[in-house]
Amino acid sequence: MSKYLLRRLMIVIPSVIGISIVLFTVLALAPGDPFEELATNPNVPPEVRANLRAKFGLDDPVALRYVRWAGSMLVGDWGFSFASRIDVEHLILQRLPTTLIVIGMSQLLALAIALPVGIYAATRPYSIFDQIASTLALIGFSLPTFFTGLLFILVFSIHLDWLPFVYRADIAAEGWRFYWEHFRQALMPVAVLGLFQGASWTRFVRSAVLDVIRLDYVTTARAKGLAERAVVMKHVVRNALIPVVTLVALQMPTIFGGAIVTEQIFRVPGIGSLLISAILANDTPVIMAVTFVLSCLVILFNLIADVLYGWLDPRITYR
Amino acid sequence: MDEKELRKLIDEVKVGRLSRRSFVKTVAMFGLTAPMATQLLTWSGVAHAQAKSVYKPTKRGGGGALKLLWWQGATLLNPHFAVGTKDQEGSRIFYEPLLAYDDEGNFVPILAAELPSVQNGGLAADGKSVVWKLKKGVQWHDGKPFTADDVLFNWEYAADTATAAVTIGSYKDIKVEKIDSHTVRVLFQKPTPFWAEAFCGTRGMLIPKHLFESYKGAKSRDAPNNLKPVGTGPYRFVDFKPGDMVRGQLNTSYHEANRPYFDTIEMKGGGDAVSAARAVIQTGEFDYAWNMQVEDEILLRLEKGGKGRADIVSGGNIEHIQLNTTDPWTEVDGERSSVKTRHAFFGDAAVREAMNMLVDRQSVQDHIYGRTGVATANFLNNPERFRSRNMKFEFNVDKANQVLEAAGWKRGSDGIRAKDGKKLKIVFQTSINAPRQKTQQIIKQACQKAGIDMELKSVTASVFFSSDVANPDTYTKFYCDMQMYTTTMTQPDPQVFMNQFTSDEVATKDNKWQGRNISRWRSEEYDKAFKAAESELDPMKRAALFVRMNDLVIGSRHIIPVVFRPRVAAISNQIRAPLSGWDNDLWLLRDWYREA
Q1: Contact B229, B92 (CB under 8 A)
Q2: How is chain A split into domains, by residue range?
Q3: Are A45 and B172 in contact (CB < 8 Å)?
Q4: Global pTM?
């Protein structure tokens, strides 16, 4: 086991380096200039832009810039944002809590829907409940979040005027009103993301449970005269959830990465909206930091999922 | 009415023989508009009747929260680093300039005690210096007094190339001297008719010396106050999250009585323009939203029974088409569209004449831009005193056909006109932006009827407007027959705006295509007029020079103005906010209030 872990960790290093090189080169080759807006402004002489580019080292060869970036990343310096002229980690830390709350809640909501519905539907396959659940799930994950998001705004904010559609991270209220306002504004983005995720997980849970429930040992358990509830919870679900756990683990990095489209629609000041505005402003250090951290997390959670898998299912061995 | 008569009339107003009102009426009969008449009076030393802003609240504060929505959030709060208007606006909540520009391009003193003029000795007769008297009793938010040293420091700070301030253009060629604790003198190298640039308007916001002194030059990026502004403005800094939120609260020691009205202010960033318009006009969640780049049709629909409206103020931005004077398809010395070449058919005045008649500006206004783009015959449209009345435009396909026919451009078997083996085949490029693609279509249809074959090209805005030297699709390279985009006019004086047609500004490989003359049109007469205007101190003669320049550009037919683009904001029906097309939206934030 420890040998396996070590080997996996050894593979991680070159892949992280590879990813960072690819990201950096792509960003360096992409058209655009962080100080582009200055070029179209007649009151800014071209030397200012040249000066700024020189100051931020943008005129150096890509390889040199990469080495410089990698060096400072190693000692924990995430870079300096061109657009905001502050350290990137400040920007990210400012956005992190909101992202964790909104995306985290939506993942919880997705689980809260997917598990009961999926399991119940699988124990009664092709019943009316199953049919309805499957249809809704299909609709749910076929509708993109930008569509449901706008639909929600149109219905709940504009026609009914129940909920605000501009998310504000700092609300000037105290006590229960503070929580109430937060709840109101988070409701729509969380619902949009949670329902979308929940829909696809429901189908996954259902098929996983369905696979297990037909196995002989389940029949045996039933023949023993165990209560249906015990059969499902103890014997079926536990085994069926192994692949589900990996799936959920692999989703974890997105909690950090945010949801670009939904954050943009509801103006949620999360990592996703930071990323998109950095991309639009050609703010390379911010793009680099967010995407790189995200890819590291994907690698990490992949590893965790693999390890978890073996722990949940002892039949799987590591070599 | 000529210059002499005008001057006589003005003199009569001065000695009181003629009232201001009848002066305005008299000149109006001769085609001068009211703002222009007022302007003439101001220039000639007749005092302003009164400030235009009507501010009703009789006490400071008590207005609750003011909620502003910017669909691109401010990313930094040091006005000297403000890359885009979003950053300028964020800074403008806290910082103020000596003087601001109102919607007609008039000057409004903010931190200046009075407007410098020749009469009060503020403006030197030779146009080479200006004396600013600063308002007394003004405090920075931390309680320190605002003095001449601060003004002096801002000049040193911005003019230092190591600081890399984006405002450097306004400060590098001037000298500033301190006369006493509340008076400074700005010295120009040559006679400068437009003296209200340094310390004025969008690039004139002043930062405090005592907080930025040790962060001048290369250390500028480390200043903690880049993100925590301490200014003289109506609101004090509370909190800032780059790209998301700027918050402020009432400045209890603000230097204007009874102002400001609101207790707190917040500027939320992010999202898109259409939903920002909704949040203000339809649901009333916010009081104000900036830069409504939204189709007028949508704005009109939202306004019906809504809680807000679109507020439209004129500026000088102009959507225009350029007909290349050079040959974009031949490479000379490593560049296409080189000034050493001539365009195959736009060299023929008849073809340009026909193109001008094939651009249906009225339809572009009516069907695409609505209130947000006004069809025009002029390149220089505002302030109104600089607008030419000599230019006309018409859309007439038949006439275009006749002109081409008469000039010898005959239709071939494929219906496309040709002369001497050269076919009228045009590549027309612009950036990707829905209204622009629609405009392209309208023009293409008309061209087809006139026997001109047009290929439409659209380039992603981030490439089109980039200064990437390696990319052939940028607008400054202009590797194409025709192109369309908006040129912005950033101050109420047309000098910087009109230098984009002077010969020494031509974009070439040598200057890495950073020259501002992108159409590459050149005219000796224009250059002469521009040179004269640069040092002409008589405002009337100077205005006449700019009108002449506009007429030369338009008369050449190489530049086809399409629509001028006023600035559009969404605003709650209750909020009273004086806006200006020449300054930031928040230029007079201190006068914003909510009507009961």
Answers
A1: no
A2: 2-74, 97-269
A3: yes
A4: 0.84
